[in-house]
Design goal:
By secondary structure, this protein is of the alpha+beta class. It is about 25% helix and about 45% strand. It has helices at about 10-15, 95-100, 125-140, 150-160, 165-170, 170-175, 235-250; strands spanning about 20-25, 30, 40-55, 55-75, 80-90, 110-115, 120, 185, 190-195, 205-220, 225-230, 265-275, 280-290, 295-305.
């Protein structure tokens, strides 16, 4: 007798065979959430950060973890979904970075989406803040002899200090997961809009141009590939960075940068997601490239549905 292993991907195909957001007749597709209460999927997320200077890699950080995504409630107006983070694996020479990642081990982030699966808000932000503060309090005592540790921890606590702060800096993989939900796309037609991005230097938000499109339709397997490109305004980014470094140099009573010699900065992001007709992401990759002077920083985040 032949035995069939029911992997999450196979279960999606079996349970959602009647669901189809793809219309081959007019080459359109729409990402809509068709999720049931208590439905659960497990994903592996990998994050890779590399800094390259003059062609040589000067630093590298690799993080891998699992996340259990559970639909806690399903109503006509939307979904409440829990993300549970666990089993972190970290490759870095920086022991402080390892400590910082340990703070989010076994953390739950509860979010709300609309009925299409579009992200709306983080619900349990106060619980998250208390969870982080408990960890940073212990970390202050353990690493009290590390230079500038109080400032580093304060920056970490600020990231989780409010719903707005969490959504701006702490849940990038969640925003990536739900990015394409809710919109109807026509094959190879480009859509665009102007975006505002948080300015981590504290000034006005940066302007960014976003373009997105439906790249591939697979009506046989009931999935499609969606892509996005985002380009931050180079002049704004360069000016804000120059002002920040100038103020920092003044505070430290050190020589500041020279405007005429300050190079232009570039910040671009690309994203591609293969999404099943049920609204579950099968695979997603986001790559961010930042160029400043002779240093290039590349950040890559991959979200992949587990088959185990």
């Amino acid at each position: 007798m032949t035995r069939i292993l029911l992997t999450p991907t196979l279960l999606l195909i079996m349970n959602c065979s009647a669901i189809c957001q793809i219309n081959p007749s007019d080459s359109t597709a729409q990402v809509i959430a068709y999720w049931n209460k208590n439905e659960k999927q497990n994903y592996t997320v990998t994050s890779d950060k590399i800094r390259i200077q003059d062609g040589d890699t000067i630093s590298k950080e690799f993080v891998r973890y699992d996340v259990d995504i559970t639909v806690q409630d399903s109503t006509e107006s939307g979904y409440i979904i829990n993300w549970f983070y666990h089993d972190y694996y970290i490759e870095t020479d920086d022991e402080l970075v390892k400590k910082l990642f340990s703070l989010v081990e076994d953390m739950n982030i509860q979010i709300r989406t609309d009925e299409l699966g579009t992200f709306e808000e983080v619900i349990n932000w106060e619980e998250i803040r208390k969870y982080i503060l408990k960890g940073t309090s212990m970390m202050k005592n353990e690493m009290k002899d590390v230079p500038r540790i109080d400032k580093i921890i304060s920056q970490m606590e600020e990231v989780y200090s409010s719903p707005k702060a969490i959504e701006a800096s702490a849940i990038n993989e969640i925003l990536q997961f739900y990015y394409f939900h809710g919109v109807q796309y026509k094959h190879w037609k480009e859509y665009s809009y102007d975006n505002k991005l948080a300015n981590l230097y504290g000034g006005q938000p940066f302007d960014a141009k976003v373009t997105f499109w439906l790249d591939e339709i697979n009506d046989v397997d009931n999935n499609a590939v969606y892509r996005m490109q985002q380009v931050v305004d180079s002049d704004q980014l360069t000016n804000e960075t120059f002002n920040y470094l100038s103020n920092l140099a003044e505070t430290m009573q050190a020589p500041g940068p020279v405007r005429e010699e300050f190079p232009d900065m570039h910040n671009e992001t690309w994203m591609a997601s293969r999404i099943h007709g049920s609204g579950w992401v099968l695979y997603s990759i986001q790559t961010k490239e930042v160029i400043a002077e002779n240093v290039m920083q590349i950040e890559e985040c991959i979200i992949e549905l587990n088959s185990r």
